[in-house]
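Researcher: Structure prediction, please.
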Amino acid sequence: MTPYEQLGGEAALSALVARFYRFMDILPEARAIRAMHPPDLAVSEEKLFMFLSGWLGGPSLYIERYGHPFLRKRHLPFAIATPEADAWMLCMRRALADTVADAALRQALEQAFAGMAAHMRNRPDVAGSPA
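Model: Predicted structure follows.
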């Protein structure tokens, strides 16, 4: 069974992504990463849903529409250091906690997302900035 199936498929993934962006909108700790997104998060939410669908073993929606994600390359225009990766993970951890009841699955997804967030860092950390 794929993580996509374990999660509960399309509806569960959609709920996770919606909750993730809700936290990005309301958490003060996410202010910097929220500013990297357009005012309306609908397209960002759709793209993350599509990407995660394939990444988690479900339908390859993102690839079908946009081609290979080249995830890190697509994020190079945005300054992502440890604080930004940590803020992204804070939103994702909270979304996972709210939407994934299975503790083992939640932990596995957190680890996978943490690896993704670390991989997205493309700027060195600035001395004196919060880590």
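Model: The helical segments are 3-7, 9-26, 31-34, 42-55, 61-66, 71-75, 82-99, 103-120.
Researcher: Thanks, that helps.
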